């Protein structure tokens, strides 16, 4: 069980580093676009920014799922990469269908991945919410429902 904990914490750390990098690049992108697109309509710029942020976060999520799939495959917990990627995606998103199960001492990796997924989705949600609030704040009264 100690090996599962160490491996799980290492994989979670790799996912956190990837998430932090993705968010850092997204913030830099927002700053760059904010100085660049003066001629376009504000709503068009906001749409492009939010779409790009969502796309970056989705790519980061897919890479994290693949990191865990590689771990499942390398440790021999799952027989092929397609099954490992499927199980990883189901576990990371906490769907947990139960059609693929881990056996053996390293099966404790799955709860670590589920916990990692919940935390990473929380960070992604926070980033999207902050970006939307920023865009609404820029518009001021334009989005006020009573005016």
Strand content: under 5%
Order of SSEs, N→C?
A: HHHH
Structural class of the helix and strand makeup?
Answer: mainly alpha
Q: What is the helix content?
A: over 70%
Shape: elongated
**Using only CA atoms, what is the Rg?**
19 Å
Mean pLDDT: 87
Number of strands: 0
Structural account:
It contains four helices and no strands. The model has no long low-confidence stretch (mean pLDDT 87). The protein is 76% helix and 0% strand. The N and C termini lie far apart (60 Å). The protein is an all-alpha fold and 147 residues long.
A few lines on this structure:
This protein has 147 residues and is mainly alpha-helical. The protein has helices at 2-36, 42-74, 81-92, 109-139.
Please outline the helices and strands.
Elements lengths: L1 H35 L5 H33 L6 H12 L16 H31 L8
Helix pairs in contact: 1-2, 1-4, 2-3, 2-4
Describe the structure using short key phrases.
single chain, elongated, 147 residues, mainly alpha, Helix Hairpins
């Amino acid at each position: 069980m100690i090996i599962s904990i160490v491996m799980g914490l290492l994989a979670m750390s790799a996912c956190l580093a990837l998430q932090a990098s993705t968010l850092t690049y997204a913030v830099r992108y927002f700053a760059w676009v904010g100085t660049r697109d003066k001629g376009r309509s504000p709503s068009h710029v906001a749409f492009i920014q939010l779409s790009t942020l969502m796309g970056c976060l989705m790519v980061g999520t897919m890479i994290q799922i693949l990191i865990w799939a590689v771990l499942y495959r390398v440790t021999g917990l799952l027989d092929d990469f397609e099954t490992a990627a499927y199980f990883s995606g189901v576990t990371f998103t906490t769907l947990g269908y139960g059609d693929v199960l881990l056996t053996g001492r390293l099966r404790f990796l799955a709860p670590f991945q589920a916990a990692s997924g919940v935390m990473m989705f929380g960070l992604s949600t926070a980033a999207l919410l902050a970006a939307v609030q920023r865009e609404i704040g820029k518009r001021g009264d334009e989005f006020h429902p009573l005016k």
